[in-house]
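Our collaborator T.R. sent over the components below with a one-line note: 'Predict the complex.' Nothing else. No constraints on interfaces, no templates requested, no preferences about which chain binds where. So this is a plain run: every listed entity goes in together, and whatever single assembly comes back becomes the starting point for the next discussion.
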Amino acid sequence: MNTEQTLVKEICPTSTQAWIKNGALLVDVREREEVAQLAYDVPEIVNIPLSEFEERYAEIPKDKEVVMVCKAGVRSLRAAGFLINHGYDNVVSMKHGLARWVQKGFPTKGDISGIVSSSASSSCCSTETDAPQNHSCCGSSH
Amino acid sequence: MKQIKVLGTGCSKCKTTYNNVLEALKQTGIEAEVVKIEDIEEMMKYNVLTTPVLMIDGVAKVKGRVAEIKEIKELLINDAPIP
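Returned assembly:
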């Protein structure tokens, strides 16, 4: 799938750390059961599953910097685009999602064994996609 | 002529929806322009969160799942202009 686009700024997990230090809010759009299994361990984070996003997106403050996150960086990209189309200015999406976050050794809560890391790239800022190939790109399943 | 758009990322569900649209049109004999949109930027213009999405004349009718032939036929027939 071609994920090149210009609407949403994408940042890597390492850059996300800097955003977090500056007080950014992380919004995890994975489904509840995914979050229960393994969650980002950061000070400010909310879970708004993509399946509930249309009804709940207004819970996200417009006056904060927001980093959208998910498992592979595809759902978060769509959700970030949705927010930008709804007047949010300070929204970015984290590329490569939790898979790369775990690969980089950033803090999590839960079991990391379920995370499939199909890319061994040493740089989280590379342009290659590392979306797990064995996951559907449809619906809310990835 | 109806405008039908299938928004999706090129996965199997999206392809199935697209093929179901073609089959529904064949079975109903309704003429329509069918466009498949796989470009992520183009998709984001439509505020798509979950795919596939079936749009008929600019309105999202089915979101986040495969649209079945039967329901597409019903959507096409119900939306058909009164002669």
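Summary for T.R.: Residues 9-114 of chain A form a domain with the Oxidized Rhodanese; domain 1 fold (CATH 3.40.250.10).
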